[in-house]
Amino acid sequence: MSLNAAQSTEVKTSSLPSEVQMLSLYRTMYLIRRFEETANELYMQGKIPSTLHLYIGQEAVATGVSANLRQDDYVLSTHRPHGHSLSKGVSPRVIMAELFGKATGACKGKGGSMHVGDMSVGVLPAIAIVGGNVPIAAGAALAFKMQKSGRIAVSFFGEGATNEGVWHESLNAAAIWNLPVLFVCENNLYGASTPFKTVFKIESIAQRAGAYGMPGIVVDGNDVLAVYQVAKEAVDRARSGNGPTLIECMTYRLCGHSRSDPRTYRTREEEDAWKLKDPLPNFRQYLLSNHYANEDQIKVIEQEVERSIQDAIEYAEASPVPRPEDVYTDVFKE
Amino acid sequence: MPIDILVPPLSQTMDTLVLVEWVKKVGDPVTKGETLFTVETDKATLEVEAPGTGVLRTILAKPGDEIKVKSVIGSIAEPGEVLQGTVAAVSPSPAEKSQSLGIAVSSSQPVITTIGSGGSSLPVERPGRIFASPRARRLAGQQGISLTELQSSGTGPQRAIIERDVKAYLEQQSASPRVTPVARRMAEMAGVDLRTVVPAKAGTITKADVQASLQQLGPSVSVPASEVAQGTSWKVKLTPTRKTIARRMLESHRTVAPVTYMSEVDATRLTKLRKRILRELREGADRPTITDFLVRITCLVLAQHPELNATFDGETLELHESVHMALAVDTPRGLLAPVIRNAERKGLAELAHLRSDLVDRAVKGTITPQELSDGTFTITNLGTLGIDHFTPIINTPQVAILGVGRIREVPAVKKGKIRIRQVMGLAVTCDHRIIDGAPAARFLKDICTLVERPDMIWL
Amino acid sequence: MPKMTIAEALRQAIREEMQRDERVFCIGEDIGVEGGFGGAFTVTLGLSQEFGHDRIIDTPISEAAIAGMAVGAAIAGMRPIADVQYGDFLFNMMDQLANQAAKLRYMSGGTLSVPMVMRAPVGTTGRGAQHAQSLEAFFTHVPGLKVVCPATAYDAKGLLKSAVRDDNPVLVFEHKLLYGSKGPRSEKGAISPVGEVPEEEYLVPIGKGIIRRPGKDVTIVANLLMMYRALAAAETLADHPIDVEVIDPRSLVPLDKDLILESVSKTGRLVIVEEDNLTNGWGAEVAALVSDKAFWWLDAPIKRVAAPDVPPPFAPVLEGEYVPSEQKIVDAVLSMF
Q: Do residue C74 and residue C13 come from a single domain?
């Protein structure tokens, strides 16, 4: 058993988001879900020149964490970055334009799906090397600490990344120097196709926190409110100078790893079981049941999201492709 | 389809020419109309243009060869064409290359290695391939040197021709060695280019050097080594020019009925006139010589004696309205007679200019065949060489020729007093088939009158 | 004008940049430990007393994290000077340097920059294959990284300052035998050049080489320790007489191409000397460049003198065969005439 692991299944009323925030949480999750589904359709239609790593099913993690962040906090993401970006306020337009490979995209067409981000809202271009973003988040946190700005950094990664050497180096460094950083592990039980149990002897990632001397918490990654509360605690801890936290969010990827994944390493029964725990309809129901909104209000939110996604598609389609000579620019800062 | 390189019919008199040099080498790109090779005719050295555009593929004649007119001496391939028998464009692998160049190649040893100029698209087998560094080629190109002149004299790595070899060659060219008179005469007779003679002792080319180089000319010259070594006679191949002169002189001798009429004329007034005229010249203008005066005088006199300004082929006598004055010129290759066309229309200054230019080019060998033909009368002046009187030979198909001897000072009696006068020997040879003695004598008398009393030129 | 060793000059550069800009800090192993060496080659000796341990940060043995954290800190507005104790350990950092530091600006469409410095000592010193590599070539080949290699005290201070002020990731390669480290950290066989270093502010621009010895018969391009061997070879060759021009490139990316091309067009001959393994070394790039741009000026094939394609050996006789000697340079030049 872990040393510092805590199971958080209850909802503590005192640290819940406000009413407005509740709807905002739903909107964010709905935006991510619809964006990813739409991107999938566009990919199937041949409009997107590369494969996609979709976030379907994991929306509650990004949403719950990012809701606690300031605009100038940093988020570092992975090869599956659309959800993190959208949750932190990156415009669907620039993500869509980047997927289309247009000059107006998040990376001017030079990054692609796996590298979307937006420095103006604190999202670094996502790092597609597994584990690669972890020391960078720690380094940014070191800078924030030195600058005494109160800013924090959040590193998102899958459970597979926790077997990378540099992950361990980074957690150790963050712990010894009390860095203001969150290490958020999205444990979706599969590293591409490799099941958790074949590559971990331990029961949960959060146990590893103790190895480095920082708190480690397991939370239901499909419960956005639970994620929100756990993240809030960790963010407060970091911002007050009390160092890093490792949060393990148990969740499930309802789609394939990439667009070329037939998911033959999972059973349909397992997938169906996790579908019942789909965070989106569950939270929708929660809002309705607890009278945070009625059906019409939710529909308004949903329609607004649909429009913004349509707008993003139109924007992307109308945008120009990069000029060939642009291949030479942005290597060095002059 | 490859384009044949034919020997053009550049000589009216000969059906073989001598190849002097190729301006391009095998493998070079060639553009239609640019100079491809040069040949020597009996009269001059001429450039021949390339008949098409492409790459010079094959060369079938080498410098010095006699080549028949209209024969094929090479070919030009269209760009990209590969002739039968050549290897397709694969550069040798580094191991092969190094082995052929004598460098040991071992994968873990070499600390020192080379990056050579890379493989090209030209066939591996190329006759006459010259190894020269890019820097050397650049300099040679700028200086207009063909690298074939430097072949096998490279001193660079792997005996390649490098910059210093080209520089040394250039220095050697500008500092031309002294040549002994005998060596020069021998070289002239044998048609040896003194630039190709390597002196045994640097700085001076001697008879022995020329003899040695004659030996190298190959089977066309048979010089038994023993004879050469003992300095006895040697056999020499006649140049085309010499052959032509020989043929024509014999022809003249055999067909013409020559009679030479001689006079001594007082040229004192003429020489004084000349001195005065020289003082009136523009700066840089050619100085009229006695020959130039004689050209002018002869033209005036020929107007009164038209039958001497004629050509006769044995059947028909053709009288000419214009005087195309041929002047005998001694050149390194032999006697040439360039022609001043329409000389009767030219003033003295212009005659001097034309004469100067023609003589200059005749000596250099750049005179054209047209300039050596269609003369109607010839003047030959051996006066500067100290000859007083001689019997000039007629320049067939002309019918007359004026020979000029030297001007010398003699005491003469004038009005009972002894004066020093300048006298000059003049001789006219006429073809008695056409011109009898009396007309010939009258002609000469009229020439002498104008020489002795040049004021009469005005009348 | 004060005279300094390269280690002292580097230390002075760090000191001045840290005084000038509070965003500058050092991060590495054993660089600030009390009573410690000041880094493996004494470069940071005394700096933690001056600036404190919050700006001279000692790390665990975590090369990848050192590099990655330098990337993150640089993006977040600091100007870190990170270092590895031995250049060979850069391989541990490869992902963070080649995949992150080098590519992040491009991948972000130019919206961020990574103003970090990574210092690394190179050169064989009898420590065996894994503490001996000269590995400039691995990084000169990565678009997005700048690479410099100062060989004199003057250049060390000037180039390190330029590297700190550059808004891009810069690798600074230093040679173990050129530091002039003293005391227990002194190196056997070190050259330890001491040079005049102005006290007043100056920078050596990145991307500019320098002619160490003008000549007209052959150009030798050589960096770090090899530059000194090239100079020695030039003295020997002067007796032949062959007049050698020695160029110290000082920066490998960006490379001072004009300087090299101009020199070769003058001399017609080029030798590149590097302590790196021969195949695909940075010398191969220079040779290809000159073959392309100065072909018609060449009077001989281009030569490279480099270490053979083997890992760096230990025994002194083997190391002597491995590291290009003055004699090998002389022989290479003679073969071109």
A: yes
